[in-house]
Structure formats: structure tokens, C-alpha cells
Amino acid sequence: IEEVRADDDPLPLAHGRPLPPGRKRFEFHYTALSFYSPEKVRFRYRLEGFDRDWIDAGPRRVAYYTNIPAGSYRFRVIAANEDGVWNADGAGFDFSLRAHFYRTPAFWVACLLGGGVLGLALYRLRMRQVTARFAAVLAERNRIAREIHDTLAQSFVGIGVQLETVVKLQAVSAEVARQHLDRTRILVRSSLAEARRSVWALRSGALERSDLGGALAEVAEQLSGETEVAVRVSGRRRRLPVEVENNLLRIGQEALANAVRHAHAGQVRVELSFGEGLVRLSVRDDGQGFDVERAGHPAAGHFGLAGMRERVQNLGGELSLLSRVGEGAEVVVEVPVA
């Protein structure tokens, strides 16, 4: 073998030389000695790993190959003299052609691993999206349930209080009883409107008519019957974010309803204090009180305390329950505000 070229570049004749990927054309130049009739020398060649059989080249002294795939090869050539005697040993040239990185097994293994990792990441992303969507639906369901409890349920408490007052006063003073009945009709209409607002997460109607202090006073009037309810506001009175006002109003409404309906209080004091970076709501009654450790359990009769805690937690505030059986109760909420 006299010369080997790859894409017109001569290659060293050292055996086993690895070649970079992308080589397209190969030329193998060879010859054989004959002192009598060199023109009658015949050749056969074969590229082991590529050709299945020997190729008869006749007197031609060059072999051409194109588009050889990556792999290890051995080019062999044998010759026959003018008498047709073949040299079975011949000559050989070993070489290997490296594959492009994207055609190597390591690349495909990496692709499979990368595809698996990507698939797992997409699956986890999808699961997070589904989980987030489910959590959003669950949170919205809980919000609506909480709003229904704190609007319709508490409105029913107010309606019940007014109707009980009507029953007790109708034999004493028909005029006063009629006033409470008129108040009941107004409360029914406002309760329906309030329920619609709550479902659509709108500002309470009482908060549209007044600030938080005025809205608490309106709720107190709705729930007052035989129970004396007083509302006091201190500090620099101002409007708060919608979410803060709505939640504080619902908390105050729940605490008032508990005091009137469950604690059977004679007097309830509501105090709203505006401070620097803090608003404080306190609802204190002289009713029968309750066991704080059991508070929040339905069996204890305080169904809305868990909702109050959830509202305060959403606002980043603190809720305190102070009560003893037979000694009244106080609900204190402190919420940070800008």
C-alpha cells in the first residue's frame, strides 16, 4: 500500500489510526512488483467491515470508497502475477472512523436519560399544576362555605333574634313589635344581597355604606334584641384594604352572633382600635362563656371559631380567645396593616 487519502488528505500508514468524523471519500493506492510483465499484474481488494466479498480491480492500482459509516475497518489488497498466481497474504491498512457525537451510543443513552428526566420534570410540573388548581378550587370552595356561614348563617341568627323579640313584644307593644318586624324584613333583603356579594368576593354592602366601625355598628343593630350591644371606635379612624375590612367584619359578626345566640349574653361590647401599623378588634360579652380548649369543635356549639382562625391566619394576624364557663368571653383579633 503506497498511499491512503481521506478527503484528499494523505494519512499516515500507521495501523489503527482513529479518524475524526465527517470523512466522506477514501482512496487506497497500492502496487505490486513484477520484473517480467508488471502490466499483467491483477489486483483484488476488500474493505473488511464494509465489503462482503473481494472486488476484482484488474490492473487498476487504486480503490475508492465514499460515505463509509463510523466503525473499525481493515483494507486488504492481494495481487496475482502474469501466471495468475495470487499472493494470499497481500497487504493491509487498519483504521477507524469515529462517529459524530450525536450518533454515538453514549449520546443516545444521554438522550434517553435526558428524555426521562425531562418527562419526569414535565410530569411533576403537570402534577404541581393540577395540585395548584385543585388547591385553588378547594380554597375557593372553603371561602364560599366560610362566606355563606358568616353571611347567611349569621343573618339567620339576626332574623331569629328579631322574630323572637317580635313574639315577646307583640302582647306588650304592637308598635315596637312592628318596628322589629320591619327590621326583620330589611335584614332578609340585605342578607340575600350580602350572600351574592360574598359568593363573588365583593366588598360587604355595609362596608360600601360606611367604614369598618360603621359596618360593625350596623351588624350590632341587626343582632341586637334583648341583648345590649355597644360599639366603640378609637384611634385614627381610616379605611383599610378590602380584604382586611371584609374579614374583620365577618369575624366581628361571628363573635357577636356567638355572644347573642350561644352565650345568651345580656351585654356585648365591641371595640375597634386603630394603631400605628395595627388594627385591633375586641368583642367581649357577659354570657355563659365556654371552654377555650374545646373551642372550634362543633360539639361545643362554636361552629365559626375555626373559620375565624382561618380568616385571621390569612391576614397574618393573631386571634386570642379569653373565656371561662360562666364568666363571659372575649375575642381579640390583632392584624398588621400598612
Q: Can you put this structure into words, describing what you see?
A:
The protein is built from six helices and 14 strands. It is α+β, with helices and mostly antiparallel strands and 338 residues long. It folds into two domains: 3-99, Immunoglobulins (Immunoglobulin-like, Sandwich); 123-336, Histidine kinase-like ATPase, C-terminal domain (Heat Shock Protein 90). The strands form three sheets. It has a five-stranded mixed β-sheet, with no helix packed on it. Strands 10-11-12-14-13 form a five-stranded mixed β-sheet, covered by helices on one side. Helix 1 runs antiparallel to helix 2 and helix 5 packs antiparallel against helix 6 (305-315). The chain is rod-shaped and about 150 Å long. It starts with a strand and ends with a strand.
